[in-house]
Amino acid sequence: VENSSCKYMEHADSGGYETVCKQKYITRPALTMQNNELIEEQIQLPSSCCCHIRFRGNVATRFSPRE
C-alpha cells in the first residue's frame, strides 16, 4: 500500500531507519469515447511498489568510530 511501511522490511525501523512504499506506474494506450468518437490516449496504470529506506535517526550514532 502506497505511503505505508514496507511489509518485509520491519527490521529496518530499528536503528533509526524508516521504510515507505512508493507506487510505480506504466503508461499504456487506451481508447476513450469523446463526442461519439474513439480517441486513443496514454493512461498510467499501477505496476508495482518500490520500497524506499530513509535514515531518520541520530547521524552521530549512524557510524561507529574506528578504534
UniProtKB/TrEMBL annotation:
Domain of life of the organism encoding this protein: Eukaryota
InterPro entries: Cystine-knot_cytokine (IPR029034), Spaetzle (IPR032104)
Domain Spaetzle: 2-53
Pfam family, one: Spaetzle
Protein's recorded name: Spaetzle domain-containing protein
Organism: Bracon brevicornis
